[in-house]
Specification:
10 helices, 226 residues, mainly alpha, elongated
Length: 226
């Protein structure tokens, strides 16, 4: 059985990617929300380039966090409704690994497009080109964290009444450290300070989330089907 685990994980991942390509509204909606929400800040704050440049780290990170939330309520909900979640659990694959595969699919279909869209948004906000490496590195780590924590929260509220309302209330407080460290690293890069410690803390957060979030999500999936 242990030799079949990687192939089963890849099968789940491939299935989710095919579904995402067939129904691309979630990915497109997240990217459009990310760009449009970021574009609203210059209208509200005024056209001052210096003000926008100073606030750009927080704007990019907050918009990315909110955009990543949009597809989460359907991460496990569709499988629970049509019964395919029961079939996935009967494959013999641990529930935590099923959850991990779904989280990976969420990152590939939501986190990666947001990462690609972050560069144009940062340029629009006047962010210096020298900060782009820090921006993309931080968002790479941050979007992975968002997918892991978001998947865990989605499994916890799976099957609950008003789960879509509860989901942001769970995800937003848990992802606050990632928001703080990511925006702080980008702000430090813009002001010429050392940004390494903030990215290291972000990496430590990701290292803790990788084993813990799938385990918690697996427990949530088993509780939902029982």
């Amino acid at each position: 059985m242990k030799f079949q685990i990687p192939s089963l994980i890849m099968a789940i991942l491939e299935r989710d990617l095919r579904l995402a390509l067939r129904h691309g509204a979630d990915t497109l909606g997240a990217v459009l929300f990310f760009i449009l929400a970021g574009a609203l800040f210059p209208l509200a704050l005024g056209p001052s380039p210096e003000l926008l440049r100073r606030m750009a780290p927080g704007i990019v990170w907050v918009c990315a966090l909110l955009a990543a939330l949009l597809p989460l309520d359907r991460l496990f909900g569709a499988e629970l409704e049509d019964g395919s979640l029961d079939h996935l659990l009967m494959t013999g694959l641990p529930a935590s690994l099923i959850a991990l595969a779904k989280m990976m699919a969420h990152w590939l279909t939501t986190g990666l497009p947001l990462l690609l869209a972050a560069g144009p948004l940062a340029i629009m906000l006047g962010m210096p080109s020298g900060s782009m490496v820090v921006l993309l590195t931080g968002l790479f780590l941050g979007t992975l964290i968002l997918s892991l924590i978001g998947g865990m929260a989605a499994s916890v509220v799976l099957g609950a009444r008003r789960g879509g309302v509860l989901l942001p209330l769970l995800v937003l407080p848990l992802t606050t450290p990632a928001l703080i460290f990511g925006a702080a690293a980008l702000d430090a890069a813009q002001t010429g300070l050392s940004w390494g410690p903030d990215l290291e803390l972000l990496g430590a957060f990701l290292a803790a989330a990788i084993p813990l979030c799938p385990l918690a999500a697996g427990a949530g999936l088993r509780a939902a089907v029982e």
